[in-house]
Design brief:
- This protein is α/β, with parallel strands linked by helices.
- It is built from eleven helices and 17 strands.
- A hairpin with a 2-residue loop joins strand 10 and strand 11.
- The longest helix is centred in the middle third of the chain and has 22 residues.
- It is elongated.
C-alpha cells in the first residue's frame, strides 16, 4: 500500500505552542496506516530552495515536544511562494511569483496535502495556494489573537501570562521609587495582549490601538495616583497605540521580502509626551519585545495547540481542504480560508472586557 504524504510547515513570527501543533499532527497521523508526515524548513522556503530542505517527522521526532517553545521547523516572515525575493544584476531586489513552480515540485515530492501553521499573512498564502488547486489546511497562530474566525489563537495566553508577570515585577520597583512605569507590549493593530495583561496585572492605564488616547486624560490619571508627592503608576501600552490625531510609531525596515512596518517605540514616545505635558514624576519605560514570544507555552496553549494539530490532520484524512481549524468555545471546528482572513479580530471599545477594565478604574484616555 502506497503511503500518502502530508507536509507541515510553520510561518510568520514564532509563537509558544507551535511545536505542540506539530506533535498533534504527527501523533494523529501515526494512528493511520497510510499517512506519513514531513516537515518543511522555514515555512515554504524549504521547498523553494535548492537543495530542498525537508525532514521526516515521526513519533520519536516529536516526543515531549509540547513543552518546547519556538518551532523545530524554523519559521520566517519574509518572502514566500507568491513574493520570492530575487536580486537584480544592479544590486536591487525584486520579487517573483513561484507558486506554480512550487506546486509542481510538491507533486514531484509526492506530497498529497499541506498543513500551514501561521497567522493572517500565512493563511492568505494558504488561500492563494488553495485557489490554485493545492490540497491545503490552515492552523491559526499568533500571539496577537487578531484572527476573527477563532475565539483564541494559541500563544496568546502565554504572551499575556508573560506580560502579567512583568507587570507584577514592575509594581514593586515602581512603588519603591514612586515612579511612573510604562510597559510596551506587542499586538500590532490589536490591543488584546495589552488589555488582558492590564486587567490581570492591575495596571492603572491601558492604551490600545482601537482607542486613540488624549495625553491630558493620561496626565490627569497619573496625578490621581499620587498623594502629594507619594505614589506610583503603571501604564501598559500596545505597540500599535497612538494619540488622538496622531499615528503609530514604526519604521520600514528595508529588509528584503519583509512587507510589514516594524512597530515599536510608542513607550518612549509616550514618556516624552508626558514630560512635555508637564508630568514631573520619574518616568521609566520597559519594552518587553520578543520575550513575549519565547519560552515554554502555558497549559492552555499546549492543549489548544494539540487540539488544532489533531483536528488539522483529521481534515486532511477526511479530504476537507481549503479549510482552517478554529476554536469556538467549546468546540474545535473548521472554517473556510476565505472566512479565516476576511476580517481582523480587534478590541471593541464597547465590549464587556473594556467595560470591566473601566469598572476597575483603568484609564484608556479615550
Amino acid at each position: 500500500m502506497a503511503l500518502k504524504r502530508v507536509m507541515v510547515l510553520t510561518g510568520g513570527g514564532d509563537c509558544p505552542g507551535l511545536n505542540a501543533v506539530i506533535r498533534g499532527i504527527v501523533k494523529r497521523a501515526s494512528q493511520e496506516k497510510d499517512w506519513e508526515v514531513i516537515g518543511c524548513i522555514e515555512s515554504f522556503n524549504g521547498v523553494l530552495r535548492e537543495p530542498t530542505e525537508v525532514v521526516e517527522l515521526t513519533e520519536k521526532t516529536v516526543e515531549g515536544l509540547q513543552i518546547q517553545g519556538g518551532t523545530i521547523l524554523g519559521t520566517t516572515n519574509k518572502g514566500g511562494p507568491f513574493e520570492w525575493p530575487v536580486k537584480n544584476p544592479d544590486g536591487s531586489w525584486t520579487t517573483v511569483d513561484r507558486s506554480d513552480e512550487m506546486i509542481r515540485k510538491l507533486g514531484y515530492m509526492d506530497v498529497d496535502a499541506v498543513i500551514n501553521i501561521g497567522g493572517d499573512g500565512s493563511q492568505r498564502i494558504s488561500l492563494g495556494l488553495a485557489k490554485k488547486g493545492l490540497n491545503i489546511v490552515g492552523v491559526p497562530k499568533t500571539i496577537d489573537n487578531d484572527l476573527s474566525s477563532t475565539d483564541y489563537t494559541f500563544g496568546f495566553q502565554t504572551a499575556v501570562q508573560i506580560c502579567t508577570e512583568a507587570i507584577d515585577k514592575l509594581v514593586t520597583t515602581a512603588a519603591s521609587h514612586n515612579r511612573v512605569f510604562i510597559m510596551e507590549v506587542m499586538g500590532r493593530d490589536a490591543g488584546w495582549i495589552a488589555l488582558h495583561s492590564a486587567i490581570a496585572g492591575g495596571a492603572d492605564i491601558c492604551l490600545i490601538p482601537e482607542m486613540p488616547y488624549d495625553i491630558e486624560k493620561i496626565k490627569e490619571k497619573i496625578e490621581q495616583r499620587y498623594n502629594k508627592r507619594r505614589g506610583y503608576c503603571i501604564i501598559v501600552v500596545a505597540e500599535g497605540a497612538k494619540p488622538k490625531g496622531g499615528s503609530i510609531v514604526g519604521t520600514q525596515t528595508g529588509e528584503v521580502g519583509y512587507q510589514h512596518v516594524k512597530l515599536g517605540g510608542i513607550g518612549n514616545q509616550l514618556a516624552a509626551e508626558l514630560k512635555a505635558a508637564g508630568v514631573d514624576h520619574d518616568i521609566r519605560c520597559t519594552i518587553l519585545g520578543h520575550l513575549q514570544r519565547g519560552g515554554t507555552p502555558i497549559a492552555f496553549d499546549r492543549i489548544l495547540a494539540s487540539e488544532f494539530g489533531v483536528r488539522a490532520m483529521e481534515l486532511v484524512i477526511e479530504g476537507q481542504f481549503g479549510q482552517m481549524v478554529a476554536y469556538r468555545h467549546p468546540e474545535v471546528v473548521s472554517v473556510s480560508l476565505e472566512e479565516a482572513v476576511r476580517a481582523q479580530n480587534l478590541v471593541d471599545p464597547n465590549s464587556r472586557l473594556v467595560h470591566t477594565a473601566k469598572g476597575l478604574g483603568i484609564e484608556f484616555g479615550d
